[in-house]
Amino acid sequence: MVSKLKHKLLKSIKSKKLNVFGLFLLLAFLFLVISKLSKEYTESVNFAIKFSNVPEHYVLTKNDSANVNVVMNSHGFNLMPLYFSDHSLKVDFEKDLSLVDDHYIWVPNATVHNIKPQLGDKVEVVSIKPDTLKFSFQTLAVKKVPVVVDSKISFSSGYDLLNGLTVSPDSINVIAPQNVIDNIEFLNTKSLALKEVKSNINSKVNVVLPKVDYNIKLSENNVTVTGDVEKFTEGTIEVPLNINNTPNNATVNFFPKTVSVLYYLPLKNFKEIKLQDFRVECDYNEVSGSNRTFLTPKITRLPNVVKNAKIKQSKVDFILVE
């Protein structure tokens, strides 16, 4: 029995009868969908409220009821796009809201002429619930705060930043209620993640809004992060030691007389390095009156082109000869 059914199915495929059947099935389904969408329906859709033209010095307090149910009547073809679009209605703060005491009032049915174009000319608005919405507001304050870049940058071998990252603008205005602004000392950016960098950096990065229960406004929503990237190299130089604050009635003998300084700088500036641009000192006052028998060398002068440097020796032995 099974073998007979298998034989008939293979025969149908070979004769293309099954393909014809599938085509008719698809056409029947399409006709059914078209027939359904051609009918009129009454549907209720929930819409979130988005305000436009809100004065800069005002902010609406967070209100969980800032949405409405719109009952609409139209053919299925006209209603279907509403299920695939952003369910929000734009409400003009200046034109659609009325100030009553210390609240703003919105009566959707009174401004339905502004809502209909957002839904389409062929959609009839039957009703909007609730029929009135109330919103409180607060006067805003302005505070200028610095922007801190969250950077995760790795460089190709031998490359590095010349002078660090520059942020433009480095500070932006935060517009929010006074009690919110008082707790904001700086703003972070989204993570700037770059790998194997070997050319100059120039990237726009969005600023992260603080997580608070109010609508915060920023004078800038993003900043530009730049940085000069150069090929770097290392060098070593022997620098004479200088002992400061030696006692007047004694001589300080120390060893070694020079220390090796390892420095890191752009490759293009390597040939500019001169010994007189370096100075390494030890301060005798740090050990005066103690039993310590060594001094600690410190770099007190470097060439401007050197990004960083360190002394290979951490101790300088000395003897006080009176």
Condensed summary:
Helices cover 17% and strands 46% of the residues. With 322 residues, the protein is of the alpha+beta class.
What topology emerges from the helices and strands here?
Layout: H1 2-14, H2 17-37, E1 40-52, E2 58-60, E3 67-75, H3 76-79, E4 88-92, H4 93-96, E5 97-100, E6 103-106, H5 112-119, E7 124-129, E8 133-139, E9 141-148, E10 151-155, E11 159-161, E12 166-168, E13 171-176, H6 178-181, E14 187-188, E15 192-197, E16 201-206, E17 217-218, E18 222-227, E19 229-244, E20 251-255, E21 258-266, E22 279-283, E23 294-295, E24 298-301, E25 308-311, E26 316-321
Parallel strand pairs: 1-4, 9-14, 10-15, 19-22
Antiparallel strand pairs: 1-3, 2-8, 3-7, 5-6, 6-8, 9-13, 11-19, 12-18, 13-17, 16-18, 19-21, 20-26, 21-25, 22-24, 23-26
Descriptive notes:
The chain has six helices and 26 strands. It has 322 residues and is of the alpha+beta class. It has three domains: 40-139, RNA Polymerase Alpha Subunit, Chain A, domain 2, CATH 2.170.120.30; 141-227, Beta Complex (RNA Polymerase Alpha Subunit, Chain A, domain 2); 234-321, RNA Polymerase Alpha Subunit, Chain A, domain 2. A hairpin with a 2-residue loop joins strand 5 (97-100) and strand 6 (103-106). InterPro entries: c-di-AMP_regulator, YbbR. This is YbbR-like domain-containing protein. It holds the Pfam family YbbR.
